[in-house]
Amino acid sequence: MEAENGKKGFFDRLKSGLAKTRKLLLTDVDDILLGSKEIDQALFDELEEALIVADVGPAFTAELIESLKEKVKRKELASPEVLKKVLRETMREILLRNEAPLPIPTDKIYTIMVIGVNGTGKTTTIGKLARNLKEEGRAVTLVAADTFRAAAIEQLEVWAKRVNVPLIRQAANADPAAVVFDAIRAAKAGPPGVVIIDTAGRLHTKVNLMEELKKMKRIMGRELPGAPHEVLLVLDATTGQNAIAQAKMFKDEIGVTGLILTKLDGTSKGGVVVRIAKELGIPLRYIGVGEQLDDLRPFRAEEFVEALFAPNDR
């Protein structure tokens, strides 16, 4: 019952967090559909514009419009109201392709390298992830490999104490690869558990950053074959199209196996979830909708679409 209440509580927060996106996307869609008595090219043009403004992206928009036109040809769309149902279903199908909870084994060391630019909520997300995994009964170790910012080390230390998990760190400006080396050695000497590595995200030295991340990956793989087992990229939903550009860059340079989308609350750009799923094809592992400890949850396509299309009085 408690888990059900927690689930309901999160759904309500997700629904509330998506309010601005819902307003931007669905108010325009509703206005277009209400004002139309027939389905014609003008309706499709208006719908296309509304979807692109809502940050769902040109690729998803093109797929949806094509799908709608096909249905019109087959006489499956009798009235404009049916379009909203098709919009919802198309969105759901695309998101389901990218729904993939993180598969963490219990019988071996599992390493997660967390990457992303500064300001995305990376360190806070790591703290929440550590807390979730600990609640599942897993042993968790945090690793402060963002040695460039002393504040990042201190912030991770606060989270380690809050969640009551060990932290592996060195002094500020130490070689991040050396910190990772220590962490893998320590993990191999202990029982199976999850090792979560915080990394730097300073983009103004992009080349240096990418080389640093590649070096860390090499050291991890050398010390523990298969590591890092997951490279999680943290993206800030409020940045919309910038999040897409960041994801493409990290995917091309480092390789990304999963995404976490933070700050979905308070943004009108939640449609970027759909765009990310359609254009990048990287599994969406988690979404974050607030500051609370339990505001980081595994991404569920059904839940997301239901929250996005939920009536406001629900």
Could you walk me through the main structural features you see in this protein, from its secondary elements to its overall organization?
By secondary structure, this protein is α/β, with parallel strands linked by helices. Helices cover about 55% and strands about 10% of the residues. The protein has 12 helices and 8 strands. The protein has helices at about 1-15, 20-35, 40-55, 60-75, 80-95, 120-135, 150-165, 175-190, 205-225, 240-255, 270-280, 300-310, and strands at about 110-115, 140-145, 165-170, 195-200, 230-235, 260, 285-290, 295-300. An 8-stranded mixed beta sheet has the order 3-2-4-1-5-6-7-8, with helices on both faces. α5 packs across α11 (about 270-280), α5 runs antiparallel to α12 and α8 (about 175-190) packs parallel to α9. The longest helix has 18 residues, at about 205-225. The chain is elongated. The chain starts with a helix and ends in a 5-residue tail after the last helix. About 45% of the residues are buried. The mean pLDDT is about 90.
